Every structure is written in structure tokens, then in C-alpha cells.
Please model this.
Amino acid sequence: MERSGTRLGEDVPGDEAAGDRGIPFTNDPARDEPFAYCFAGPAVAFCPGQPGERATCPEKIIAVGTPGDIPDDRAGAAVFQDNLTVNFPAVPGQCVVDDVNLQLTIQHDVLQDLDVHLEHLDLRSEMFTDICGFAVDLDVVLDDDAAAAIQSNCPPNDGGRYTTEDGGGLNAFEGLDAKGVWKLIIDDDFQSGVGIGKVTRWQLELRTKAR
Model:
């Protein structure tokens, strides 16, 4: 039956119920929030009354950031910051973080100068700050499921897996929407003219699950 003239929530006599045909009974987001995201990307529609199911959340995502210099300029408020966007076919809020790890390689003359944070949505979480004294360079995978903390092996430049400094910096993101902008922020907090460095590689390893 032709639907082009049907008003919002109106059924057609002699036909199936409007809800069975996918006609929304409300446009109030507080009542029918999923309808706001019907037909999102290539995902199968899951409007009220429609058959089908939500798109599958990706099991693993590798997102690679951009290298760059770390300014030795705390007084000028300059920091290293790189943003990467995680995106995949799914409705916003449908797929949440199940686990996240951070691979990080830094060339730097004085590791204790560095404060490293990861930010996503409204959460900024500390990875580590002021560790390892005058040790040089860093090459690790930060993984809060690892056996040892990053500050337990100085300098941490063996490519091994270590937890964040307090053991929960990455776990803090679990349960948040996986999609969106992730920011790596590194502050060289001692302007000495000696501690000079750069990020040579960073990437996120994300695992997601359905909310």
C-alpha cells in the first residue's frame, strides 16, 4: 500500500499496524531514542517495528596516530597533542570499549620530564608522569592487564607490555562509546633546554562489544 501520504504515527485501515510497518509512533527522542539513528550507515535498520538487527561491533580496531615533536616549552604552554578518530559502521553509543591498549614509542633525553595523558569524550586519563629519572627513550605497549607497571623497568624501552603508572589509566575508558576522537597529550613539564624529544610512533588497540 502506498505510504507517501501517511502522517507520523497514522495507521491505514485494512493494513497492518503502523508499528509493524516501521512507522514511528513518536519523534520524541526521550521516548524512542533508537529512531533518531535509523538506517545509520550500512548498518541494518532497527527502527521500532522493523525486522533485522544492529550491526556487529568490531572485535579489534588498530588506530594509528601521527608522530611529532614534544615541545620543551612548559612556560609557553606548548604540548604534543595528536588526535585520531575511530569510526566504523554502527549507531552512536552502540559499541563500547571492552579493552584499550596504547603502543607508544618516544625518543627523549629525560623521561622524568614527561606527563602523558590519553583523552576520549569527556575523560582525560593519566598514563604516567615523571617516571624513571634521567633515563632515555621509551618503547612500550601500555596494557592494564599486564603483570608489571611501567615505572618498574627503567628505562622502559624493550617493547614490552606494562600497565599504566597507577594500573587503571586505560581501564577507565571501558564502557565508553568507542567511536569518536582520541587524543594523546604529552607535556614536557621542565623547560631545561636539555630534555628534547619526539613521539616516533603511537597507536591504539581497541576491542569493542555491544552495549
Q: What stands out?
A: Residues 4 and 23 are 12 Å apart (CA to CA). Confidence is low (pLDDT under 50) at residues 21-46. The longest strand covers residues 95-108.
